[in-house]
Design a protein that fits this description.
The complex is a heterodimer of chains A (234) and B (591). With 234 residues, chain A is mostly helical. Chain A is built from eight helices and no strands. By secondary structure, chain B is mainly alpha-helical. Chain B has one domain: Cytochrome c oxidase-like, subunit I domain (Cytochrome C Oxidase, Chain A), CATH 1.20.210. Helices cover 62% and strands 1% of the residues of chain B. Chain B is built from 16 helices and two strands. The longest helix of chain B is centred in the first third of the chain and has 37 residues, at 78-114. Classes of the chains: A mainly alpha (234), B mainly alpha (591). The interface between A and B is large, with 52 and 62 residues.
Amino acid sequence: MSAILLFMATVAAIAGWWLSQQRLAAKPWLEEGVAVDFRDRSGSSVPAAKIGLGVFLAVVGSLFALLISAYSMRTNMADWRELPLPRLLWFNTGVLVISSAALQWAHMAARRDDIDGLIVGLLVGGASAMTFLAGQLLVWQQLNVAGYFVASNPANSFFYLITAAHGLHLMGGLVALGRTTAKVWRGAPMMQVRLSVELCAIYWHFLLLVWLVLLGLLTGWTDNFVDICRQLLT
Amino acid sequence: MVDIPFDEVAGIPPAEVGEVELYHPKSWWTRYVFSQDAKVIAIQYSLTASAIGLVALVLSWMMRLQLGFPGTFSFIDANQYLQFITMHGMIMVIYLLTALFLGGFGNYLIPLMVGARDMVFPYVNMLSYWVYLLAVLVLASTFFVPGGPTGAGWTLYPPQAILSGTPGQDWGIILMLASLILFIIGFTMGGLNYVVTVLQARTRGMTLMRMPLTVWGIFTATVMALLAFPALFVASVMLLLDRILGTSFFMPTLVEMGQLTKYGGGSPILFQHLFWFFGHPEVYIVALPAFGIISDLISVHARKNIFGYRMMVWAIVAIGALSFVVWAHHMYVSGMNPYFGFFFATTTLIIAIPTAIKVYNWVLTLWRGDIHLTVPMLFALAFIITFVNGGLTGLFLGNVVVDVPLSDTMFVVAHFHMVMGIAPIMAVFGGIYHWYPKVTGRMLNEALGRFHFWVSFLGAYAVFFPMHYLGLLGMPRRYHDIGETAFIPASAHDLNAFMSVAALIVGFAQMVFLFNLIWSLFKGKEAGGNPWGAASLEWQTPETPPGHGNWGKELPIVYRWAYDYSVPGATRDFVPQNEPPARLSAQGAHP
């Protein structure tokens, strides 16, 4: 359970930092009048949707941290047998990086009021994300053909479960991206789409980060790192 | 309020009180059924939760009938008994209490108490309710599928949860897991709303430290739930895959009915870790909103500011954080390393510190207060007593050496019903009696309320107090029929019969409560806007019940905390949060 505890500690640190800015030592029973709170001081307030996405990412992060926890608890048992990872995964990872970069490009284009750049960024981002998903399905198929079925070994089960969870989150993101693209296509003013594009880009970067962590875990790259952490803890 | 010269107050520009982007319903359907108004959603949540809660209440009667009079009722066999236990526990903890506190109280009170027009994402909020309703319907449907609902116990421990021999192995367990997954998805939608509304939609002047403790409790509980429910989600998905696809996340190599199963290599302990990583925070997800509600009730009905407001807030946050590092105290008997047991026993006992701070502060709020023994106050007092009771037995069970002999006895059942059943339900009832006038504009009937209180309170003690004793005798839990044993005397069976009769009477009192809810809706005394003389913002709405958008044209402006009761020199014994400081009123700036 160390992965999830590490994740929770991070969330707690962020929450603690935020709370420390909130004058929690105030004595409200002595204060009268309109208090100036942090939202007044900060000038431009963060849009609610962005905070909402931040909270949602914490929830999704917790979900993946738990999957990683479960995975690492299971790998420690004696009968764990790794499954060979198809090379296609590396191609897919590259495609996901391109997708994330394209959305970052779209986000910057939206800030510059560059409508052409925005559309190109959104379309490339969406197309490469779909390519990634198709690639992941292909990986599943290759594993199936090679006889690594979902139920034949816990390592296989975890591989299918983790990639499916990640893929489903990306599909959810594609719905939001599709709506944003449609809005841009219909010619909505740049002011209205800027936030949506930014949120999509943040979500994509987050899913890319999650994928890189998962890939490190599935390929065993992080094993050394985990061992070092474990030694530090014990 | 429009003309108040803000600059004189704190040197800040006037608040933006323009029309916010608010969804306006256009038809009866979008106003009352597919409504995006948090108040309507709150009522929908509450009614649905209460309806499924009634089912769970009836299930508890069935269990009590069997325990009190074993062998008398032919319609309760051993399998059904297990199914009743499972469904009763799951419904009460998740589909009733969690949904009622966060979906019901949260939706109604958060926007009103922080001075918002609505939740920040009303459409997602509406979706949250409909997904919740779907989850409840899927859960209820398990009563009608072949094999009936699952009888795996509310913790759904594998491997037995999905093996033959456990009732509901065909459809019951699959639908139960599907329903949990739906519930979590629905809750996440709602939870995002509650958190972001508290963070972003507070009205001008409503700093975090001016929020009523109810909002603090619900807010912290929601944050915890958002982080803890994924654990149940992951566990449910993996168990579902084990059941449907035959994967072996949790299933070890085992022999079932003399035959080797297809499973192999899974870890049942992994499920317990995941389940309790959700399960323990869940206790506080239910308790923290109750803490908040009780704080507000006590302050209003004792006409005194809450004692140690800052400590109360810090204690809520501390409990929320600590509750994530105690989960394995539910697993002392699952064979883990004794050093872990020591660690988790320590963290468990540490939680007693912030909790005790809260209890002391409640008692000190009452100390020399002008206590009005209204029905909400009675329930609040009952909550404190019951929570202390349940908390003390928690100290017993938190210690490994005490827990090991007691863990499979009725003592545990008595403990968690006190702390997580009776206590939160007392807070729910207190909250309903307190806020019903705001929701409907009419008071609940006082005499019926008192009857309901005394029968429920004394009756609940008649059920669960003797249960501690049965547990100490060694009477095991989860057993359909104890039968003849050497260590359980005949008097214990008499006690069981007594408890069962008490349980039926308590159940009857809830029918009186339901009658009161409906009767008072039409015939109750007109309440007016603020019948209790409360200072917090939800009682200062221009209309009662609050209209669409809550605040008429202008959002309220908050000048003080929510607990200015019996302020020396004030004209009334409470000062509403949105009343400008006396200095301004004296200058005639207040209309």
